[in-house]
Amino acid sequence: MPPTLGAVLRIPRLGLRLRAGGDDAGARRVRWVAISELTDPTPYLEGGELVLTTGIRWPEESGRDAALSYVRRLADRGVAGLGFGVEVAHDDIPAPLLQAAGEVGLPLIEVPRPTPFMAVGKAVSRLLAEEEYEGLTRAFDAQRRLTQAALRGEAAVVERLATELARAAARAGRETGTPEPHTAGPPAGPGSAGAAPAEENTAARRASVEGGGGRREEEAAARRTPAEGGSGDWVLLLDQDGRPRHAVPPAAAERAAGLADEVRRLRASKRPAGASVAAHGETIAVQALGVAGRVRGFLAIGAAHRFGPDERTLVSAAASLLSLELEHRDPVGGDLVGGLVEALLEGGLDLAGAERLRAALPDPPLVVAVAEAPPEDAAAPLPAIAGACLAARLPARDAARAGGRRAAGGAARIAVLGPESADPAGVLAGLAGGPVGAGRPASLSGLPAARAEAERALEAARGEGADVVRAAELPGGFLGLVDGPAGVRIADEVLAPLTGRRSAADLLASLRAYLAASGRWDAAAESLGVHRHTLRYRINRIRELLPGDLDDPDYRTELWLALRTRERGQG
To answer: In what order do the strands lie in the sheet with 282-289?
Structure first.
């Protein structure tokens, strides 16, 4: 936090004296030093500045009204105080200005002639740098303690976060709620009691925070708040379904019911996000936890005050640690099982030599069944184990390219993996209640291909309106891969330049005959019953209409598959 005006007054080499001001003069925060001889400098101020002036534009006969207007403008702008350099334009601070400052409650400081305004600015800049360094040091130390706590598990992170938040609250209360002891009472002169060198002042302040009374106050508050609720602050870790996992103090677990709406909203966002609300004199922050777009749980913090930057930094660090912890927690919680199933179906897990992990899986061959999760349930928790099967939520794939890249923004999938005897498709139908696709039984290494078959079967189930479709029921071979609504859609897109013409039937028949005869004009023309010059004309017209090159074998293959798929769809 910025240094107080009292800290600036206690730097003896500056020789500053407080001549007027309210009881809170020494506790005001000085965010910068501004030098201005304008009669109205407020358009160039942000608030929190110590404004320095020599009063060179103040005529000796300036009256009370002018002084009062000037001081009020500064006070309304929120400046920390006004420093007046004497023995430059005025031998002393004008009496109307002193009276106005006392009436308004704006701290008025006398700057002696030997003290350059630049020296005051440099001193405040040094204090700001020292405060910033101390804040960074505190943040690093707190994050180090949180990281060490993470080695002991999520409960230790929650408890350590509560302790660190209590420390931050105690420090903020001490820094903002207690006026500087040297600023009350009569003005202090240079060298008066209470002044100390800047270096000694800094050392004393560090000792207060790091090892002295202030540190003891923080420790006492930290011990009191989590266990006894000394300041009303609390920390609560919720699982994916919004149920309490750990609470500090334990009574904070009762807050879970009141957070249900926020948890539901954050879970529906399908990505880690946060929310902050203030009501009934309390500030509550809720942060979704997870990595790679998966929500694993929620961290909720409540306090009887607004969260400061130190507290927000602590919460952010704890959220990151808890996200990693929840991502790799014990399989009893379900998330590790889901991650294992996803890795197996993506082909990203090598089980060679991992005998204990293999033993935790059902014996192969295994069947993969997939279904589309309803949008409102896309982030709802799944049972990790359903009978002899494992269940998981997976990112969607483009069913038209089963086994290929993931579809951007596709719907979530629910997958069930298990032996054929356990009927994974039937288990999934009970979980999802919608169309289900199931692949053929496969070994562990063949699960990615089995998932692709299941995606294709799901696409067929959706197109046919069937409850369950199994890959064994679908046509085989490459044509089988494109057989279905998705394949027909792609075929229509490939052939669209021809099907939109009035002579579409002749063009499509000519293209099919030409491809079937491998480009032999006589054989193709004979199969159509037309003269070969007629066929040449049609093929040249087709070349003009199609975007690809008919001499390209890849493009000819794509056209052939599109023609065959279209015929199967029409048949």
So the answer is: 244-248, 234-239, 297-303, 282-289, 274-279
